[in-house]
Amino acid sequence: MAAANDDQARFRAVVLPHLADAYALARWLTGNSSDAEDVVQEACLRAFRAIGSYAGGNARAWLLAITRNAAFTWLAKNRSQTVVGVEDLEEVERREMARELPIDGNPEAELIAKADAQQLEAAIAQLPLPFREALVLRDVQGLDYREIAAVTKVPIGTVMSRLARARGRLIASMDAQTPTGKT
Amino acid sequence: MTSPSDKDPGLLVHAYVDGELDPANALEFERQLAGDPALARERDRIDALRRVIGERFPPAPLPLALARRVEASVLGSRASPAASSLASRPSWRALAASVLLSLFVASGATWFVVRPSPADTVADMVVASHVRALMAPQPADVASSDQHTVKPWFNGKLPEAPQVVDLIGEGFPLVGGRIDVIGRTPVPTLVYRRRQHLISLLAIPDGNDAAEVRRAIAGYNIVSWSEKGVRYWAVSDVAAADLDAFARAFRVATA
Q1: ∠B121-B123-B128 over CA atoms, to 5°?
Q2: What residues of chain B lie within 8 A of the CB of A127, using their CB?
Q3: Cys-Cys link to B154, which of A133, A154, B47, B161 (CB 3.0-4.6 A)?
Q4: Closest Cα partner for B91 from A163, A10, A25?
Q5: Which CATH superfamily is domain B92-254 in?
Q6: C-beta of residue A124 within 8 angstroms of C-beta of residue A140
Q7: Ranges in chain B, pLDDT < 70
Q8: Cβ separation A19–B61 shorter than 8 A
């Protein structure tokens, strides 16, 4: 009983403060709020089961890593035709890395600054999963490279190249949308 | 850790914009930027993208129903009387503990390195003050959400009281105020809250108007700007976009 109370106290101290962050990440990975709620619920159950072995360290990164894994399990189960398991991410990445980015015709910074939320959200949703999660963790959630590396379990150099790809694609997509974009 | 110097400038420019280059590499990269207008434009594009994402996507609030669901399923119905604990005041001790732990982890990072300039020394002291406040029993010496209580408290202690506004309407309730010492100067600090996170806002009178600065030190985001001869430093572990929103709200409210 005392141990159970300990776990509950730890869960409150370690997990609950970062629940909003977990929810935000789940939303970006699943693409909608109700799926994100299911993912966070599952992640919390996993976190609670693992709380006894939580060895300290960055609690937010710890919970985000669990949330990300829960999201991937959920995606593999519910959207297996579009999204793949964690181990396939490297493959997706290799394929994407081979694609050349447009060098000419990049939009000016002023144009990028005017992008609206809808346009951005659609472009981010189009990003392959490994790039999307790196971008969201960095530019939406404000994690540094080391934290992102811990959450996504890849070396920092890989975080850097994924982030570069993600941003490069978003920037290119804005140029493509310019003619129909808002003034 | 690999040396970034052998890397593609197309990658390095991201690390540069994110403040993740160590001082030597940052300097070297700045030299490269100065001689390469195309690279400089790429830097501007990335910077613009980062900012616009931060502005367009402020953190999604945690749905109350989800908070209740997690409390009920994980902590059991026994815990339901405390179901509101998510929305209530954070536990300072828990906050400080998690903050310290993440600081400890982050300090091992060789990638983000503080760049040596006077502003950085101040930024470090600002972060140190914030961390110290999180460790203290109370993050504010005067704990009040009433700006008409907080401002007079400063009046009695400092030659110049800062502008005090409550930003609860913008999602940043005022928690109180305290006095930090930066270098050898006592400066007024306002404390605000964003969900479970605290934001310290230091107001250092310096008479100069310097450019706006955004960066991260040891996992803390910092936004700094000048207004009417006062240099403001906002520091917190909230996401950069949140802190930007806070800075905007404060500037609008005090304009």
Answers
A1: 95
A2: none
A3: B161
A4: A10
A5: MucB/RseB, C-terminal domain (3.30.200.100)
A6: no
A7: 1-7, 77-120
A8: no
